[in-house]
Amino acid sequence: VLEIKCPYNGRDGTVRELATSPSSCIILQRGELRLRTDHAYYYQVQLQMLLCKKNYCDVVVWTTKDFVTLRVYKEPNMCKSMAERCQVYFERVVLPELCFNYWTNKASVDASEEEVQDTATSSDLLYCMCHKPESGKMIRCDSGSCKFKWFHFECVNLQRAPRAKKWYCVECKKLLNKV
Asked: Which GO terms fall under molecular function for this chain's record (predicted)?
C-alpha cells in the first residue's frame, strides 16, 4: 500500500521541521522519523493494510522543500480492535439508517418535534414483541439469536437510547443470565 501525504501546515518547511509541530503526522524518535501512532493517518493506513491484506504501507510525507518515505507495518491487534469497532458502528449506525432511515427520521423528528406516524400496510415488515411495523424510535437487541431484533422504545419502556455499548431485550437478558 502507498499513501502520500502533503500536510498543508508544514508545506513550506522541511520534513524534520514538520516533525516538531505538535499537530504533525510525524514525529522524530531517537533520530528517526516515524508516523505518529496517535494520528488519524496511522489509523487510516492500518485500515488500508487490513482491507488490502498487506503487511506494510509506505507513507510518503511531502513538503515543498523535501519528502520522506516511512514504512509502517500492520499491527494485527490494532486491526482486530478497529474491525470490532467498525462492526459495532455498522450495526448501530449504518444498518439502522439503511433499513429504517433511523438517523434521517430522527433528525426530522427532532426538528419538527413530531413522532413518525404509523403508516402500516400489509406489505410492511413487523417488528418487536407487539408485532407492529417500524414506527417512532426503535432499538436493536445485540443478541445474535433474538427472534425480534428491533423494538419500539415504547414497548421496552425507553425514553432515550441507553448509554451502554450493548442492549439486550428482556428475553435475551434472561437467556444470557442462565449461561
From this structure: zinc ion binding
Kindly state the cell numbers that stand for 160. 432515550
User: How far, in whole angstroms, is CA 128 from its chain's centroid?
Assistant: 26
Domain boundary among 50, 74, 98: 74
Query: b/e per residue, 138-174, with b = 16+ CB within 10 A?
Result: bbbbbbeebebbbbbeebbeeeeeeeeeebbbeebee
Judge whether residue 156 has pLDDT over 80: yes
| Total domain count, the chain | 2
Domain range for residue 160? 124-179
179: CATH: 3.30.40.10
Average pLDDT of 11-22? 93
pLDDT in tens, 78-126: 999 989 988 999 988 898 888 888 777 765 454 444 444 444 444 457 8
Collapsed DSSP state (helix, strand, coil) of residue 110: helix
